[in-house]
Amino acid sequence: MKSRKGLVLTALVLFGSLFIAFRSINGTDSNEKIAQQQKLLNTVGALLEQQHYSPQKINDDFSRKIFKAYLSQLDGDKSIFIAADVNAVKKFETTIDDEIHGASIQFQPAVSAIYEKRVAETMLYYKDILSKPFDYSVNETVQLDGDQLGYTSTEAERKDRWRKKLKYYSLERFIDLQEEREKNKGNDSFKVLPDDSLELAARTSVLKMMDRTFNRIKTTFTEEQRFNSFINVITNTMDPHTDYYPPIEKRAFDERMSNQFYGIGAQLQQDDNGIKIASVVTGGPAWKSGSIVAGDIIIKVAQGANEPVDVSGYGTEDAVKLIRGDKGTEVRITFKKQDGTTKTVSLIREKIEQDEGLARSAVIMQGKDKIGYIALPDFYANFEDKNGFKCSEDVATEVKKLKAENVKGIVIDLRNNGGGSLLEVVKMVGLFIKTGPVVQVKERDGRVDQQTWRDNDESVLYDGPLTVMVNELSASASEIFAAAIQDYKRGIVIGSSSTYGKGTVQRPIPFGRPIDFYSSRTEFGAVSLTFQKFYRVNGGSTQLKGVVPDIIMPDTYEYLKIREKDNPNSLPWDAIPQTPYQPWQGISVGNLTEIIKKEQTRISSDANLILLQDNLKWLSKNNDNPINLQIDQFKQLQKQITNTVNQNNTLLKLKNEMSVQTLEADKDKFYNNPDKNKGIRYQEWLKLLKQDLQIDASAKIIQELATQQYNTAKN
User: Fold this and answer.
1) Residue 315 — φ and ψ, nearest 5°?
2) In the beta sheet, which residues pair with residue 514?
3) Is residue 201 within a helix (H) or strand (E), and if so which, with residue range?
4) 553 exposed, middle or buried (CB, 10 Å; 0-12, 13-18, 19+)?
């Protein structure tokens, strides 16, 4: 298997020649910009056809998929375009494949032009609709799921679709305001307003929301961004995890993977006044400047000496992408101070480490027993800094701290962990087994690699009882870890009926010239390309099927259509032969099976969890239905939904909170943190753990495992 560096070099050789004529898009004329987009489209198409693990044929059928998907990308609920718009571009339905293969680009620019026109019209629509009161006595429904709708035939129908949607938004807020009024009856400091005033306040609130949404579309969803979305639709149609990342998005992806970025050291938040400084990180560039304080509103952002960008209408995420950048570069930010004056501050970006996104641990008390708990949000790694964060090293550190606390066993929480580095998950499994393969990888030519991704270190950092928590959003590397622990009989996996079901491997293929000396980022971004599939050591694939836990325990996501199997572009499931491996000898298979059977019986007969399952099924079924906008019927249904959701939240919380403690080594981080707000967030995290029913169940299993392992060793 090629190393990451080797693959990147190969890709540059294969596809770099197509970019020789490319120059920066900034400052180019329209014809040159189109030429650059044409080359990008052709290059991505060639990459998909020549290097993708299982490429679809880029033909008329593929073109039809792109046609439908791109319209949906721009207008998911079918409230922007009308049928005539779709018919106007229908002639391109089977020619997009020709454009990918070199014909001039016509489809995307044509759709983009219509989109701009319709967005401008929509802004007039919602302002007009929200200027008049709604009649909530009318018995009518709204369908918000675009898959259940067709495109409207006339402008009048489109405007009426918007009227119903805006009426729904306003009705929600109107009822909230009525309930707030009811709760504050008898409160002399609360101003009681009549229904007509509350109705106006509800519409005003929705108007502000719509203004923010559409101002952001006009400001940040430019023609260039829409073209990038078009490229991403093409890559995602090949499979859901082949993504195109323009340069800024590639940087954001690297930041998430590494838990570090180059910025100014400030947290942002958004309100009706704009994007403001929420807090300043001690020691960061913003703090060092002495000129930036919480409450300052960001007006403009400039890269070095370049012209500043007015960020009015930007979302916080958009502004963050402008403020962050590359190592040692300058950013100039213009603020509106709280006294009404404006000030421009020049800052040099410095490395900011996001330690809140790293592995963290706590001790859970079960009677007199201490149970270790480790939460891992991602399988993060910093590929460009050898001293950067790596999750396997951080988990090893947490394990050592827990061992120092003399815990009976360890719970590893991978719920909502979407994966990350394949190398890191192999290293992390190696902390808990002696030696052996962790995952098998199959190449596009059918060759299976059974040797590269294995633990060759005979040492075991931790040999005690282990449970792994997963859910529907545990994906990729999380599934590799859970599957290895399960196949080796190293511990017990507990969670929802199956994990996400992503069994494919991606690598970034960069396009264009490097933009700096510190990273692998290039001027035209990269495609994260699916080029392998991975398999369990027992030969099974996690693709589509995911990992089925040893003990199944319901949670709130169980019936949502969010797994890999719910995406029609997903690659199929298959299996390969098992590779030789030696299961864990720390506990007999019989004892392990007995513990699993006992706990599953308890969960399956738990009346509260049975009720939770029934509630989740009802919510899922109800979610697909049209919404009645007659106020009494709306209130009745919303009350039923709210009561059900509240009941579910109660069912998933312990009646009696667990005793959860911070580790001795972490007390300063939690209670004496120099960043006071961060310390508070750590303490809030501890409070959430105390109520978690699933963590409690995992900790109790640890106690069972500890007893069985002790008895096994004693006998």
Assistant:
1) -85, 165
2) 522
3) helix 195-220
4) buried
Could you report the per-residue pLDDT of 574-616, keeping only the tens digit for each? 999 999 999 998 888 888 999 999 999 999 999 999 999 999 9
Half-sphere exposure of residue 30: CA atoms within 13 angstroms, side-chain side? 2
Strands 551-552 and 492-495: parallel
CA distance linking residue 197 with residue 220, whole number of Å = 34
Question: 418 φ, ψ to 5°?
Answer: -85, 5
Count of other CB atoms within 10 angstroms of residue 33: 16
Closest CA to 466 of 581, 373, 361: 373
Give the least confident one: 46-50, 178-182, 518-522, 559-563. 518-522
Residue 171 makes CB contacts below 8 A (sequence gap 6+) with 134, 136, 202, 629, 631, 634
d(CA 8, CA 510): 7
For the chain, give the number of residues: 715
Instruction: Give buried/exposed letters for 236-269 (b at 16+ CB in 10 A, else e).
Output: bbbbbbbbbbbbbbbbbbbbebbbbbbbbbbbbe
Amino acid identity of residue 653, one-letter, is K
Instruction: Give CA–CA dist 412/470, Å, rounded.
Output: 9
Q: What are residue 469's DSSP bridge partners?
A: 413, 494
Nearest-10 crossing angle of helices 223-238, 107-129: 110
Mean pLDDT on 512-541? 89
What pLDDT is recorded for position 277? 94
Instruction: Kindly tell me the burial class for residue 529, based on how many C-beta atoms sit within 10 Å of its own C-beta (0-12, 13-18, 19 or more).
Output: buried
* 369 C-beta neighbours (distance < 10 Å), count: 16
Q: Answer for the pair 509, 529: CB distance below 8 angstroms, yes or no.
A: yes
Give the C-alpha distances (Å, rounded to integers) separating 277 from 270, 288, 321, 342, 507: 9, 15, 15, 14, 36
pLDDT above 50 for 452: yes
Hey, which residues does 260 pair with through a beta bridge?
Answer: 353
Beta bridge partners of 360: 375
Instruction: Using the CB atoms, write b or e for 283-310: b if 16+ within 10 Å.
Output: ebbbbbbeebeeebbbbbbbbeeeeebe
- Identity of the highest mean pLDDT range in 100-104, 249-253, 310-314: 100-104
Give the separation between CA 288 and CA 304, rounded to whole angstroms.
18
∠ CA 623-628-630, rounded to 5°: 150
User: What per-residue confidence (pLDDT) applies to 385?
Assistant: 83
- CB-CB neighbours of 357 under 10 Å: 16
The Cα–Cα gap between 246 and 36 comes to 13
Please tell me whether residue 277 adopts helix, strand or coil conformation.
strand
Produce one character per residue of 117-131: b if its CB has 16 or more CB atoms within 10 Å, e if not: ebbeebbebbeebbe
Judging by DSSP bridges, how do beta strands 409-413 and 466-470 pair with one another? Answer: parallel
CA 155 to chain CA mean position, Å? 36
